Request: fold
Amino acid sequence: MPDAFENMDRMYRLQRYFYDTTRKYYLLGRDQLLNEMNVRSGERVLEVGCGTARNLIILARRHPDAHFYGLDASAAMLETAQAKTDNAGLKSITLKTALADDFSFNGTFGRAVPFDKIFFSYSISMIPPWRESIDNALANLKPGGTLYLVDFYDQKDLPAAFRKLLKWWLRKFHVQFWDGLLPYFSSLDKDGLVRLDLKPLFRRYSFIASLKKPI
Reply:
Protein backbone atom coordinates (compact mmCIF):
# COMPACT_ATOMS: atom_id res chain seq x y z
CA MET A 1 0.00 0.00 0.00
CA PRO A 2 1.21 3.56 -0.63
CA ASP A 3 2.75 5.23 2.41
CA ALA A 4 2.25 8.81 3.57
CA PHE A 5 5.15 10.09 1.46
CA GLU A 6 3.76 8.53 -1.72
CA ASN A 7 0.25 9.81 -0.98
CA MET A 8 1.47 13.37 -0.51
CA ASP A 9 3.59 13.27 -3.66
CA ARG A 10 0.62 11.99 -5.64
CA MET A 11 -1.62 14.75 -4.30
CA TYR A 12 0.80 17.63 -4.86
CA ARG A 13 2.80 16.58 -7.90
CA LEU A 14 0.66 18.90 -10.04
CA GLN A 15 -1.03 21.04 -7.38
CA ARG A 16 2.29 22.52 -6.27
CA TYR A 17 2.41 24.63 -9.43
CA PHE A 18 -0.79 26.53 -8.60
CA TYR A 19 -1.08 25.86 -4.87
CA ASP A 20 -0.25 29.39 -3.65
CA THR A 21 -2.51 31.05 -6.22
CA THR A 22 -5.61 29.07 -5.22
CA ARG A 23 -5.11 28.65 -1.46
CA LYS A 24 -4.94 32.36 -0.68
CA TYR A 25 -8.72 32.55 -1.16
CA TYR A 26 -9.67 30.13 1.61
CA LEU A 27 -6.71 29.48 3.94
CA LEU A 28 -7.81 32.43 6.05
CA GLY A 29 -5.79 33.55 9.05
CA ARG A 30 -2.34 32.50 7.85
CA ASP A 31 -0.96 36.01 7.67
CA GLN A 32 -2.52 36.93 11.00
CA LEU A 33 -0.64 34.05 12.59
CA LEU A 34 2.65 35.12 11.00
CA ASN A 35 2.09 38.64 12.34
CA GLU A 36 1.42 37.38 15.86
CA MET A 37 4.38 35.03 16.17
CA ASN A 38 6.83 37.76 17.25
CA VAL A 39 9.98 36.07 15.95
CA ARG A 40 13.11 37.37 17.65
CA SER A 41 16.69 37.65 16.44
CA GLY A 42 18.53 34.34 16.57
CA GLU A 43 15.43 32.22 17.14
CA ARG A 44 14.93 28.86 15.43
CA VAL A 45 11.45 28.50 13.91
CA LEU A 46 10.02 25.33 12.33
CA GLU A 47 6.96 24.97 10.10
CA VAL A 48 5.43 21.48 10.04
CA GLY A 49 3.85 20.87 6.64
CA CYS A 50 5.55 23.83 4.98
CA GLY A 51 4.35 23.08 1.45
CA THR A 52 5.77 25.61 -1.02
CA ALA A 53 7.56 27.50 1.80
CA ARG A 54 5.27 30.47 1.29
CA ASN A 55 5.05 31.21 5.02
CA LEU A 56 8.75 30.60 5.67
CA ILE A 57 9.76 32.99 2.90
CA ILE A 58 7.56 35.74 4.37
CA LEU A 59 9.06 35.20 7.82
CA ALA A 60 12.66 34.98 6.58
CA ARG A 61 12.32 38.28 4.74
CA ARG A 62 10.89 39.96 7.83
CA HIS A 63 13.39 38.47 10.26
CA PRO A 64 16.78 38.13 8.53
CA ASP A 65 18.57 37.39 11.84
CA ALA A 66 16.45 34.31 12.68
CA HIS A 67 16.75 30.75 11.36
CA PHE A 68 13.87 28.94 9.68
CA TYR A 69 13.18 25.28 9.05
CA GLY A 70 10.45 23.46 7.16
CA LEU A 71 9.40 19.86 6.81
CA ASP A 72 6.87 18.23 4.52
CA ALA A 73 5.89 14.68 3.61
CA SER A 74 5.89 15.54 -0.10
CA ALA A 75 9.31 15.57 -1.74
CA ALA A 76 7.67 17.00 -4.86
CA MET A 77 6.29 19.93 -2.89
CA LEU A 78 9.71 20.54 -1.34
CA GLU A 79 11.27 20.72 -4.80
CA THR A 80 9.03 23.71 -5.45
CA ALA A 81 9.76 25.12 -1.99
CA GLN A 82 13.52 24.85 -2.52
CA ALA A 83 13.28 26.55 -5.91
CA LYS A 84 11.29 29.39 -4.38
CA THR A 85 13.72 29.91 -1.49
CA ASP A 86 16.68 29.78 -3.89
CA ASN A 87 15.05 32.31 -6.21
CA ALA A 88 14.42 34.57 -3.22
CA GLY A 89 18.09 34.33 -2.25
CA LEU A 90 17.24 33.21 1.27
CA LYS A 91 19.95 31.17 2.96
CA SER A 92 18.26 31.10 6.37
CA ILE A 93 15.70 28.42 5.39
CA THR A 94 16.44 24.69 5.69
CA LEU A 95 13.97 22.16 4.25
CA LYS A 96 13.65 18.42 4.95
CA THR A 97 11.30 15.62 3.95
CA ALA A 98 9.76 14.15 7.10
CA LEU A 99 6.49 13.25 8.80
CA ALA A 100 4.91 15.42 11.48
CA ASP A 101 4.82 12.60 14.01
CA ASP A 102 8.33 11.34 13.28
CA PHE A 103 10.81 14.23 13.11
CA SER A 104 13.35 15.46 15.63
CA PHE A 105 15.39 18.64 15.96
CA ASN A 106 18.63 16.66 16.11
CA GLY A 107 17.98 13.62 13.91
CA THR A 108 16.10 15.42 11.11
CA PHE A 109 17.77 18.83 11.15
CA GLY A 110 21.09 18.14 12.92
CA ARG A 111 20.45 20.79 15.55
CA ALA A 112 21.89 20.61 19.04
CA VAL A 113 18.95 22.30 20.73
CA PRO A 114 15.13 22.26 20.29
CA PHE A 115 13.18 24.91 18.39
CA ASP A 116 12.04 28.23 19.86
CA LYS A 117 8.79 28.20 17.89
CA ILE A 118 6.97 25.56 15.84
CA PHE A 119 3.86 26.15 13.76
CA PHE A 120 1.29 24.26 11.70
CA SER A 121 -0.45 26.36 9.05
CA TYR A 122 -3.45 24.48 7.62
CA SER A 123 -1.59 21.18 7.91
CA ILE A 124 -2.88 19.55 11.11
CA SER A 125 -6.26 19.01 9.39
CA MET A 126 -4.48 16.75 6.87
CA ILE A 127 -2.62 14.62 9.41
CA PRO A 128 -4.54 11.56 10.69
CA PRO A 129 -2.06 10.98 13.55
CA TRP A 130 -2.72 14.54 14.71
CA ARG A 131 -2.38 13.76 18.42
CA GLU A 132 1.03 12.13 17.94
CA SER A 133 2.08 15.06 15.76
CA ILE A 134 1.14 17.60 18.44
CA ASP A 135 3.01 15.58 21.08
CA ASN A 136 6.05 15.30 18.82
CA ALA A 137 6.06 19.03 18.11
CA LEU A 138 5.93 19.81 21.84
CA ALA A 139 8.77 17.34 22.46
CA ASN A 140 10.90 19.25 19.93
CA LEU A 141 10.12 22.64 21.46
CA LYS A 142 12.37 24.20 24.07
CA PRO A 143 11.01 25.08 27.55
CA GLY A 144 9.30 28.45 27.22
CA GLY A 145 8.79 27.93 23.49
CA THR A 146 5.45 28.16 21.72
CA LEU A 147 3.57 25.89 19.35
CA TYR A 148 1.18 27.73 17.00
CA LEU A 149 -1.61 26.41 14.80
CA VAL A 150 -3.97 28.01 12.30
CA ASP A 151 -6.53 25.80 10.60
CA PHE A 152 -10.17 25.21 9.79
CA TYR A 153 -12.59 25.37 12.74
CA ASP A 154 -16.12 23.93 12.94
CA GLN A 155 -17.90 26.86 11.11
CA LYS A 156 -20.79 26.64 13.59
CA ASP A 157 -21.52 30.37 13.29
CA LEU A 158 -21.79 30.20 9.49
CA PRO A 159 -24.84 29.15 7.41
CA ALA A 160 -25.49 25.40 7.33
CA ALA A 161 -25.43 25.27 3.52
CA PHE A 162 -21.99 26.90 3.48
CA ARG A 163 -20.67 24.45 6.09
CA LYS A 164 -21.92 21.49 4.09
CA LEU A 165 -20.37 22.77 0.85
CA LEU A 166 -17.05 23.59 2.52
CA LYS A 167 -16.75 20.19 4.18
CA TRP A 168 -17.57 18.46 0.89
CA TRP A 169 -14.85 20.47 -0.86
CA LEU A 170 -12.26 19.87 1.84
CA ARG A 171 -12.83 16.12 1.86
CA LYS A 172 -11.69 16.08 -1.78
CA PHE A 173 -8.27 17.11 -0.46
CA HIS A 174 -8.33 14.79 2.57
CA VAL A 175 -8.85 17.74 4.91
CA GLN A 176 -11.06 17.74 7.99
CA PHE A 177 -11.52 19.37 11.39
CA TRP A 178 -10.64 16.80 14.06
CA ASP A 179 -13.35 16.86 16.73
CA GLY A 180 -10.89 15.87 19.45
CA LEU A 181 -8.23 18.46 18.59
CA LEU A 182 -9.31 21.44 20.68
CA PRO A 183 -10.39 19.30 23.67
CA TYR A 184 -6.90 17.79 23.54
CA PHE A 185 -5.38 21.28 23.66
CA SER A 186 -7.54 22.02 26.69
CA SER A 187 -6.42 18.81 28.41
CA LEU A 188 -2.77 19.76 27.88
CA ASP A 189 -3.51 23.16 29.42
CA LYS A 190 -5.39 21.61 32.35
CA ASP A 191 -2.47 19.25 33.03
CA GLY A 192 -0.05 22.18 33.10
CA LEU A 193 1.87 21.00 30.05
CA VAL A 194 1.09 24.14 28.04
CA ARG A 195 -0.64 27.49 28.43
CA LEU A 196 -3.36 27.62 25.78
CA ASP A 197 -4.71 30.66 23.97
CA LEU A 198 -7.43 30.02 21.37
CA LYS A 199 -9.04 32.54 19.03
CA PRO A 200 -11.88 31.76 16.60
CA LEU A 201 -11.62 33.68 13.32
CA PHE A 202 -14.21 34.74 10.74
CA ARG A 203 -17.26 33.38 12.60
CA ARG A 204 -15.48 30.10 13.46
CA TYR A 205 -14.36 29.53 9.88
CA SER A 206 -10.85 29.01 11.25
CA PHE A 207 -8.89 29.37 14.48
CA ILE A 208 -5.49 30.36 15.79
CA ALA A 209 -4.14 28.49 18.81
CA SER A 210 -0.92 29.02 20.74
CA LEU A 211 0.41 26.45 23.20
CA LYS A 212 3.25 27.81 25.30
CA LYS A 213 5.44 25.36 27.17
CA PRO A 214 6.33 26.25 30.75
CA ILE A 215 9.93 27.08 31.56
